Amino acid sequence: MAVLNRKNRFSLLFRKFWRENRKNYLLYSLGFFSIIFLIYGYSILNSLHDTFPKLIQLTTFSVGLLLGGTLFAASFYGLFATPAKAIRFLLLPVSIGEKLLLSYLFTQVIFIAIFLTIYHGIDWLFCFFYNHFVEIPKKPLLRMAQEDYKGVPLNITNSSVLSNLFIFILLSSAAHFGGLSFTKNAFIKTCLLIILF
C-alpha cells in the first residue's frame, strides 16, 4: 500500500509541476527550435554551391545539446531565488528523493527527448532541402566525390553523437548539482568550478 501511495504521490507531483511549468517548456522548446533552425539553415544556404556541411551538422547538435542541457539543468532550481516559491516547493508533502527524481526526469530524460525530437526534425528538413536544391559542380574531379553532395540526417548511433550524449549526462548532472548548491547565477558559478576542476 505504501508503494502505491508513493507512486500516487509522485504522479501527483509530476502533474502539478507540469501544469505549472508547461508554458515555460513550450517557450524553451520554441527557443531551441529557433536557434538551431537559424544556425543550421544559414549554414545550408551557404553550402548550396558546396559540399554538405557535415561539421556544422555535428557542431549544431553538440553545442545545442551541451549548452542547452547544462543551462536548463542549472536553471531548474531557479525557484529558490524567490523565497515564496522555494518555501512552497519545499513544503510539498513528498520526499526529497521524489523531488530529486522529478528534477532528474525533467533535466535529463524529458530534455533529451525534446531536444532530439527538435533536432532530428530540423536535420531531416534541411537535408531534404539541401538534396533538392544543391548544385553539383560539373568539373570531373569534383564529380568523383558526389557522396559529399548528399545531405544525410545525423545518425544517433554515430560514435561522436554517443560521446556527446555521455558528456551531456556528466555536464548536466554537474549543472544540476550546481543549481542545488547556488541560489543565484548557478550556471556561471558551476561553469567556473568545472573549469577550475
Characterize this entry briefly.
The protein is an all-alpha fold and 197 residues long.
Walk me through what this model shows:
The protein has seven helices and no strands. The protein is mainly α. The mean pLDDT is 82.
Topology:
Blueprint: H1 2-45, H2 54-75, H3 83-90, H4 96-133, H5 140-143, H6 159-181, H7 186-196
> Given the helix and strand composition, which structural class is it?
mainly alpha
How many helices in DSSP terms?
7
Distance between the termini: 45 Å
Q: Approximately how much beta-strand content do the residues carry?
A: under 5%
Rg calc: 21 Å
Helical residue percent band = over 70%
Q: What value does the average pLDDT take?
A: 82
The biggest beta sheet, please? none
Shape: elongated
SSE string, helix = H, strand = E? HHHHHHH
Tally the beta strands: 0
What are the segments in which pLDDT stays under 50 over at least 5 consecutive residues? none
Supply the key terms.
7 helices; mainly alpha; 197 residues
